[in-house]
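Re: beginner question about structure tokens

> Can someone show what the tokenized structure looks like for a real chain? I only ever see the sequence side.

Sure, here's an example I had lying around. Input first:
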Amino acid sequence: MRSTETPETRSVRTLRVGEQVRHALSEILARGDVHDETLTKYLVTITEVRLSPDLKHATVFVKPLLGRDEEAVLKALRTNTAYLQSEVARRVNLKYAARLKFLLDESFDEGGRIDQLLRAPHVARDLPGEPD
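And the corresponding structure tokens:
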């Protein structure tokens, strides 16, 4: 689960570098630079990158297109972490290469679950809207 840290509590530099890392990873995956059968088979979205304050550790939230074979995609990313770290280090100019940690982004699933709950008949009747 994600931490309770909000964008307001993170520094501008951490957010900016996180966005640069996200763009670099997205480009690497979109171009097919990683020679992995699983990663070439699925489109993977990098939804967010959160860096530690010292910029040495990056938590990368990912979501395969349509949420298919999430575990296989996550395993492939973790298998290719060393290559991805070196490529990101080459593209994003930092003193130290950030160590990447890949996690599934469950925020879409959580949003869908909340939407489903709000549409349930026993909840919908209590929400303001059109009278019965």
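Each token stands for a local structural state, so reading them left to right follows the chain. The first helix runs from residue 12 to 31.
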